[in-house]
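Fold this sequence, please.
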Amino acid sequence: MAEPFDGTYTTSEEWFDSGGTRCAARVYRPGAADEPAPVVVMAHGFGAVRALRLYAYAERFAAAGYAVVVFDYRNFGESEGEPRQVLDVAMQHEDWRAALRHARSLDGIDPTRVVAWGTSFAGGHVITLAGQGEPLSAVIAQVPHVSGPAAVRSAGLRAALRVGVPGIRDAIGARLGREPVYVDSVGLPGHTAMMTSPDAYPGMHTLLSESGLKEDAYPHTVAARIALRIGLYSPRRWAPKVECPALVQIVAQDAITPQRVAERAAGKMRNSTVRIYDGGHFDPYVEPLFATVIADQIEFLHHHVPTRAKGRA
């Protein structure tokens, strides 16, 4: 049942199937639309869930006239799937394709005007999908993961070794049918966690606070096996094949997805717009930087995927 919100758009909680598992999606529909609307499909980054500030973006897009589908990956957040907190790159790509199919099937949506929006790890996913030929009108990649080796170098050898040991245990256990071995998604420098840059732990807690969530609202762990795969996932190899317009937003002091690597990847895209901001990896989600980042995203959308299709203005 769609619920009105501020009179500008409605929201509804829905489900779509991905690999036989139900994924949770919140759908925003702009109010008073007199023609099928373009749709922005959104998902979060490494081990994160949609409730961590993605609704703030979706509300701005919907108020600007765009339909939005915000979803959680299988095994995370409100989506179903067992075992929990297992992050598999290929499976997340499948979830993305299923979410895009669901978005195109919705009433009141123009299936030819679909935008993929991803942040951090999902920023890499949308680049990969576009490069692999997914029919998209545009992509928005915010602080995107583009290079596995660069991410490992940024984390540092000691940090990589700390998560590598439980990663091996988890990978072996998975083959033997055992329960996952978990590590924290974020942690303080020197601790065993997937992200331990100085801004990671406080950044995550700021996201929780700004999202109105309690510390224990969602698990902050991930199955450790992904530590063995991060270095092998490099979406930048698909960048030269991205043909649709792409907005790549980079922060200059990013300790997780380095600026220079992201810039080089964006430079290989045929139709990329690059925006660079002062700040760290977690800053675009919250004020004061959020207002600038979302304004640039909406400007990009209005230019490349206007709310009124060409010929109907």
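The chain has eight helices and twelve strands. The mean pLDDT is 94.
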